[in-house]
């Protein structure tokens, strides 16, 4: 890709991302957010995180989108101890460390 | 778990309380885990970019300006294929659409801030920043300054590790073998574990996760975040309303609530 086209992509990606992130925040002043919407929004974080996590574990191939429900799915085998550590410790360092090390060991073992 | 409401009441009670140890300390302790989680992911982006024919300067600029991991990774393939800039930017729009929900959700937390502070705050509203902001605002009042320092630290870590990754790119033959790709998922798992405080959040998470897997598996990965989030949060609200109705009607069935 040519340098001007690359710069166009960078500018476009930046503008679009910033627009998405800033507009609702800046426009929210003009509306009163109702009680129901506030309660609804409290469920957004857990829903988003689950929606980001689950496909990266069970549909790991970004090209084929093949569902992998195999027990020997290394990402599933990594997610189990990682989830346990996350739940028991609520500590991000311990959780990320567990995930990276377990997956590296499984990859070393040839999975 | 009414995050926004909690923070609003706290704000009214304690207006100007500086966190113990000052802004930098509070910001750094919240940012530390995110920075550590970013290192391997952003490093991997820096390592991968040149293998897709994206020059180091462009990879670093992308991390410095766009600062949205999943859309950055998603752009690599199309950039290599030389697809039109407009369609790459449109893909970015779809991949990052979920951030509009973050922005809306954070609005009550930053209500009293200046427009300038809000505009700065929006730049770094990543998945991780949103999760940490939501958790921290629910606990206590945070100043615009503290959030600015937090955002600076995580942004610096993200852009810095892309630069490191670009430098190391020539030395690392296969970055996928290192298990680094899982760092982001592990970070999300930790954030999720901190947020799921009751059965309703758990149900919302399970429902959103199942929907996301289904949508991805049928070849709609671009919709696999926004749609499950909206459906999941709506179901959460309905569960909540259902439970509230049963309490007000004074039906003494604990199992229902």
Short description:
With about 110 residues, chain A is mainly α. Chain A is built from five helices and no strands.
Describe this structure in words.
The complex is a heterodimer of chains A (111) and B (257). Chain A is built from five helices and no strands. Chain A is mainly α. In chain A, helix 4 runs antiparallel to helix 5. Chain B is mainly α. Chain B is 73% helix and 0% strand. Chain B has twelve helices and no strands. At the A-B interface, helix 1, helix 2, helix 3, helix 4 and helix 5 of A face helix 1, helix 2, helix 3, helix 4 and helix 5 of B.
Features:
heterodimer; A: mainly alpha; 5 helices; B: mainly alpha; globular; disordered N terminus; disordered C terminus
Which two chains have the most extensive interface, and how many residues on each?
A-B, 72 and 107 residues
Helicity range of chain B? over 70%
Number of strands of chain A: 0
Q: Could you tell me the radius of gyration of chain A in angstroms? A: 20 Å
Order of helices and strands of chain A: HHHHH
Quantity of strands of chain B, as a count: 0
Q: Which H/E pattern describes the elements of chain B?
A: HHHHHHHHHHHH
Topology:
The complex is a heterodimer of chains A (111) and B (257).
Chain A: H1 3-27, H2 35-42, H3 44-58, H4 74-89, H5 92-108
Chain B: H1 3-13, H2 22-51, H3 56-65, H4 69-81, H5 85-96, H6 98-106, H7 115-123, H8 127-139, H9 144-168, H10 182-195, H11 199-217, H12 226-248
């Amino acid at each position: 890709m040519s340098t001007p086209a690359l710069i166009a992509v960078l500018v476009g990606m930046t503008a679009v991302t910033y627009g998405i992130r800033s507009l609702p925040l800046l426009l929210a002043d003009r509306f009163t957010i109702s009680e129901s919407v506030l309660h609804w929004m409290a469920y957004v974080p857990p829903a988003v995180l689950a929606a980001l996590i689950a496909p990266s574990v069970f549909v790991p191939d970004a090209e084929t989108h093949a569902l992998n429900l195999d027990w020997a799915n290394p990402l599933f085998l990594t997610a189990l101890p990682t989830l346990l550590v996350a739940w028991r410790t609520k500590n991000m360092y311990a959780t990320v460390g567990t995930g990276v090390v377990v997956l590296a060991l499984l990859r070393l073992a040839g999975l | 778990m009414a995050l926004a409401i909690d923070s609003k009441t706290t704000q009214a009670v304690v207006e100007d309380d500086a966190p113990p140890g000052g802004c930098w300390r509070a910001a750094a302790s919240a940012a530390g885990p995110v920075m550590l989680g970013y290192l391997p992911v952003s490093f991997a982006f820096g390592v991968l970019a040149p293998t897709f024919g994206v020059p180091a300067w462009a990879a670093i600029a992308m991390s410095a300006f766009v600062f949205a991991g999943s859309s950055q990774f998603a752009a690599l393939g199309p950039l290599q294929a030389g697809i039109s800039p407009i369609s790459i930017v449109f893909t970015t729009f779809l991949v990052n659409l979920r951030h509009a929900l973050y922005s809306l959700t954070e609005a009550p937390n930053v209500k009293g801030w200046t427009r300038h502070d809000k505009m700065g705050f929006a730049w770094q509203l990543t998945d991780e920043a949103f999760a940490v902001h939501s958790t921290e605002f629910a606990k206590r009042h945070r100043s615009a300054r503290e959030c600015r320092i937090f955002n600076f630290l995580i942004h610096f870590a993200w852009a810095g590790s892309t630069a490191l990754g670009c430098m190391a790119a020539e030395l690392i033959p296969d970055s996928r073998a290192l298990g680094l790709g899982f760092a982001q998922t592990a970070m999300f798992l930790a954030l999720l574990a901190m947020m799921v405080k009751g059965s309703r959040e758990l149900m919302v998470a399970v429902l959103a996760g199942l929907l996301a897997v289904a949508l991805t598996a049928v070849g709609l990965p671009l919709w696999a975040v926004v749609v499950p989030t909206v459906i999941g949060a709506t179901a959460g609200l309905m569960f909540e309303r259902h439970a509230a109705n049963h309490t007000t009607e004074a039906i003494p069935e604990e199992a229902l609530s």
